[in-house]
Write a structure and sequence with these properties.
The protein is mainly alpha-helical and about 100 residues long. It is built from 4 helices and no strands. It is globular. The structure holds iron/sulfur cluster.
Length: about 100
């Protein structure tokens, strides 16, 4: 299944934060594994953090914006050191916050 990579490739390439991403030369499979097991997600999250990626916040914000209110099963891959369930929890937390 190539859905995860297609989703990533469909996003605009013009945003400059992507050019500073620590993962830009890594295999996308690391961040969009065929089987999103807990271990696979943890390995990718660890890369985001241990690499000192300078655009974690931008990466996470991009995913949150793209995914909107989607349920975890419709969220793909690791963005900003978060897996699909992490981002759904963040979404729910943001929804509950008073504006
Ligand atoms: S936070 Fe992780 S997935 Fe996002 S750009 Fe950085 S290394 Fe890549």
């Amino acid at each position: 299944m190539t859905t995860f990579n297609h989703a990533r490739q469909a996003l605009p390439r013009t945003t400059s934060w992507r050019e500073r991403a620590a993962c830009q030369f890594e295999d996308p499979e690391l961040f969009f594994p065929e089987a999103e097991t807990v271990t696979a997600i943890q390995i990718a999250r660890r890369f985001c953090i241990s690499s000192g990626c300078p655009v974690i916040k931008e990466c996470l914000n991009s995913a949150m914006k793209e995914e909107g209110s989607a349920q975890p099963k419709f969220r793909y891959g690791v963005w900003g050191a978060t897996g699909p369930s992490d981002r759904y929890k963040l979404y729910l937390g943001r929804e509950r916050r008073p504006s």
